[in-house]
Predict the 3D structure of the following.
Amino acid sequence: MSQKNPLHIPSPFRVEAIDMTPEQKEQEYVHNVYQPWPVVEEFLKTMPPGFVGADVGCGNGKYIGVNPKLFMVGSDSICGERGHEAMVCDGLALPYRPEFFDFAISIAVIHHFISPERRIAAIEEILRVVRVGGRVLIFVWALEQTGKRDFDKNVQDVFVPWAMPKKAEPKKDKTKSRPQGVKRKDKKKDLPSLEGDNVTEPTNRLVTNDNAGQQHSMTEGITSAASTPSTTTSTQTPGVEEQIPEQKELAAPVYNRYYHLFQKGELEDLVLKTNKASILQQGYDRDNWWCILEKISNA
Amino acid sequence: MLQCHVKGCDANNFPLELQEVVLEQEEAEFNEDFLKNMLGKLEYEALVATSLKLDIHDLPATMPEDAAYNDEFLQILHRVILETHIKSGKMVCPNCQHIYNIRDGIPNMLLAEHEV
């Protein structure tokens, strides 16, 4: 399957799954990275032609071309590789003018913010750049997920190991779909949690920083820049490299990324707390809670 | 579309001023719906001023009143906002002078910790 995509770039955004067969891993990889989720696809396809949208945390940009009649701007760090409009930025401070967009999507992003306040702030920031009447689709990881991962239902804040592909090789031989660190991690059986000993890899410094309150929201864009192919590594800030100097030499660094696993109804609660949006639709899909909001006010 | 988002920089932070720009023309499909939608979103004066600095003189100084139905104008707009890409350069905030670099066509809008 991976050969079908001419621009098959291993994405560091793939969350490493535990205890999966190679086939499952391959499937999940392709699914995560290249196959648009049906709910998202449907959302984008029902947007009127000519609408302008923001994909906040766009990853490799898989949603940006779903509906060619839309004009979508992605922010993160690697979507530029597919030739879409993209930029690198932070999720709590989007660089857009207020109310510029007709709609926005935020897929698998809000769950990386470390406190309820930050999660609300992230939603508010998205709402700020969308016009009144505009719609926003949000996906977050569910605590209740029953798919490949079995999380302790009492622990909502977890670290999930996450493999990054090797640092920038300009060669096209990166067609291997799986980051090389996969094998190393098969040994691990348990998900580390905030309460437990999460130092299972030598590379969780980013996470430690997060705990110290220096969390970079939307760390996807920031951390991935250090290992994505050369066309985008240039977009990173010097500070990013400083955070992870020891990873540069490793074949496939493994990070433990912070996730807040959302309980049923929790996402909607956060949205309603902003007082700026109403909820049009909500659901559960692919281990995620999702909802579609309509911005109702700026105040 | 972009504005400076350094904390506390909330006045005169638009448009970002382009410097040392390398442009690239790339053909794009004409999307009339998009262009018409953009008419209401554009800060037209800022677009014209920015274009002039890049030596693009095609846009009329003021937006024609019949812009949405003015095919010639929409074609020019299409060329300027969809087909003209900034391959590299800098965007400088007119207020706080923060510099955002553009490399390989991708602006880096990240801020340092103290600027967020």
Summary: Chain B has one domain: 17-109. Helices of chain B lie at 32-39, 44-53, 71-83. Chain B touches chain A through 31 residues (CB under 8 Å).
